Automatic annotation (TrEMBL):
Residues 71-253 form the Peptidase M48 domain. Its cofactor is Zn(2+). One of its GO terms (cellular component) is membrane. GO terms for molecular function: metal ion binding; metalloendopeptidase activity. This is M48 family peptidase.
Length: 264
């Protein structure tokens, strides 16, 4: 009996796995993209409604420009791989929020927010592409879905979000907000090392495909690393560890990223 249960469990886990693009890592996936995207759209609107969104000016235009170029790069990559279905249901949005937080994030479905406080660290459009490419990569790699799947399994909420919402809506919403990792006000869980590495890797490629110089990622993370030693580290670093090891890994990945880079 034990062997049958163990076998059934293994088959279930195998069936509930997906593959991260580019890296090929297998990940737990108990939550559908439709469910994640729907919840993300709802929570994103709540964030915008409670924030001061900057809709005009060069900085707001830059955020939308960088976001749209990376969006096009992501869509191009999936077309080339004949995997357009993985982006089905994406309704991209790129907004600049007037807030001193040195932070940015991307919810499932392409819901991006950049806080004005991080712009002095990004310094220019290329630096902003490093940040937005990294955050969009988290969404494209389904890291939030992976974390929510892990948390739901650990808390025994089941494998169907709609059922979990009916049984325990507050608990399910809490798990989702933790999983999306959008900062101290919502996300409470840190991305794992493998997820951070993947976001760095994919982000470099997506920004390069969008026509931004991936070499700028080293300078950006060096600036973030210097900020880590400040009295009040950026909120961005609370879920994004920045250190020599990370920079060294990015340097090793740059030759691959440069093959995608065509200046505009």
């Amino acid at each position: 009996m034990f062997k049958k249960i163990a076998l059934a469990s293994c088959l279930f886990v195998a069936a509930a796995c997906s593959t991260v693009p580019i890296t090929g890592r297998r990940q737990l996936s108990l939550v559908s993209d439709t469910e994640m995207n729907t919840m993300a759209a709802q929570e994103y609107q709540k964030v915008l409604a409670s924030s001061r969104v900057i809709n005009s000016g060069e900085q707001a235009a830059m955020v939308k420009r960088v976001g749209q170029r990376i969006q096009q790069a992501v869509e191009m990559y999936f077309r080339q791989q004949n995997q357009q279905a993985q982006l089905e249901g994406y309704q991209w949005e790129f907004n600049l929020i007037d807030d001193k937080q040195e932070n940015a994030w991307c919810m499932p479905g392409g819901k991006v927010a950049v806080y004005s406080g991080i712009l002095p660290i990004t310094q220019d459009e290329n630096g902003l592409a490093v940040v937005m490419g990294h955050e969009i990569a988290h969404a494209v790699a389904r890291h939030s879905s992976e974390r929510m799947s892990q948390q739901m399994a650990a808390q025994g909420l089941g494998t169907v979000v709609s059922t979990a919402v009916g049984q325990s809506p507050t608990a399910t919403q809490s798990v989702f907000l933790q999983a999306v990792g959008v900062g101290s006000s919502l996300g409470l869980l840190k991305y794992g090392r493998s997820q951070e590495s993947e976001a760095d890797h994919l982000g470099l490629i997506f920004m390069a495909m969008a026509g931004y110089n991936p070499d700028g990622a080293v300078q950006f993370w060096q600036r973030m690393d210097a900020r880590e030693n400040a009295a009040s580290p950026p909120e961005f670093l609370s879920t994004h560890p920045s250190n020599g090891t990370r920079i060294a890994s990015i340097q090793k990945e740059l030759p691959e990223a440069r093959t995608y880079y065509k200046p505009r």
